[in-house]
TrEMBL record:
Domain DDH: 16-154
Species lineage: Bacteria, Bacillati, Bacillota, Bacilli, Lactobacillales
One matching Pfam family: DHH
Official protein name in the record: 3'-to-5' oligoribonuclease A
Domain of life: Bacteria
GO molecular-function term, one example from the UniProt record: nucleic acid binding
InterPro entries: DDH_dom, DHH_sf, DHHA1_dom, Oligoribo/pAp-PDE_c-di-AMP_PDE
DHHA1 domain mapped to chain residues: 238-310
């Protein structure tokens, strides 16, 4: 029996299924979670399926979160999507069920769960959920609501098919999802639009980027900057891809101050591997897209220096 078959058997076996994802979710976290929930609901109407976690206003158009009581976890199957590390799971009751399944496309550096289906080569966890549906489509139903959520997740994690994890299979999955009839244009426009405050912050980022000779770009968003644009950490996600649009930039970091004075570090790359750098600073992720933490401005400077060294080594390797 394959791992996917084991997962499907667990879904069929349990009457109550609770689906979690990571904190500070992006479209793929919400999309894979809601997409899976809607597939199971449409396929098995008599089952209770709950998607739990903090409700994120900016992503509620993908799907609304449910409320789960502690008793709901008794004899429940818990599935966590798009979450590499246990500390990142939103709602720590995820261990209270009868069985725990991990479905994820990040490197499996921190294994957990009774079953763990991890495919780092997949473009997104949403793509994996579609693959699970497709493998058992004779017993599963993919409705437009599920397809919309999965499509949003794929678009979000591939940067609208710009990133290297986009494969011919990814495009075929997207086409299959589009064929269900949801408003594709509306989803694309929703993911492409930003509030005016984020537009103003985007101008600040471009004006204040520090770019080394070898293409390492960094910018620090302090409390004063966030207050200036009336934004909190969650509102800064829209500026993360911006440095990568600059031709000379090969890797970049955006530092965002947190309430406790520490800094969230968003690391991205167009070539050099940056997840090992993230691991050195309480983080991790993909080779070209990772996250980390800096406890203070001294550690911010350390990460800036290390990123610059990575860019220099990468440029040198390209010349050899």
């Amino acid at each position: 029996m394959t791992l996917q078959q084991e997962i499907f058997e667990q879904i069929k076996k349990h009457q109550r299924i609770i689906i979690h994802r990571h904190q500070r979710p992006d479209p793929d976290a919400i999309g894979s979670q809601i997409g899976l929930a809607e597939i199971i609901r449409a396929s098995f109407p008599m089952k209770t399926v709950l998607a739990v976690g903090k409700q994120i206003g900016g992503l509620s158009w993908i799907g609304e979160m449910d409320t789960a009581d502690d008793d709901d976890y008794d004899d429940a199957l818990v599935i966590v999507t798009d979450t590499a590390n246990p500390p990142r799971v939103d709602d720590n009751r995820y261990t209270n069920g009868q069985e725990l399944i991990k479905i994820d496309h990040h490197p499996d550096d921190d294994p957990y769960g009774d079953l763990a289906w991890v495919v780092p080569s997949a473009s997104s966890s949403s793509e994996m959920i579609f693959d699970l549906y497709h493998q058992f489509k004779h017993e599963l139903t993919l409705n437009a609501k599920a397809a919309k959520a999965l499509y949003a997740g794929i678009i979000g994690d591939t940067g609208r098919f710009l990133y290297s994890a986009t494969t011919p299979h990814t495009m075929r999955v997207a086409a299959s999802l589009m064929a269900t009839g949801f408003d594709v244009t509306a989803v694309n426009q929703k993911l492409d639009s930003i509030p005016l405050s984020v537009a103003h912050l985007s101008a600040y980022v471009y004006q204040n980027l520090t770019i080394t000779e070898d293409g390492a770009a960094t910018v620090c968003l302090t409390s004063e900057v966030l207050d200036q644009f009336d934004l909190k950490d969650a509102g800064t996600a829209g500026v993360v891809p911006l440095p990568g649009k600059i031709e000379s930039v090969v890797c970049w970091a955006i530092f965002v101050v947190q309430r406790d004075g520490t800094y969230r570090v968003r690391l991205r790359s167009k070539g050099p591997t940056i997840n090992e750098l993230a691991k050195k600073h309480d983080g991790g992720g993909h080779a070209l897209a990772s996250g980390a933490k800096a406890k203070d401005l001294d550690e911010v400077q350390t990460i800036q220096n290390e990123l610059a060294a990575i860019a220099t080594a990468y440029k040198k390797s390209k010349k050899e």
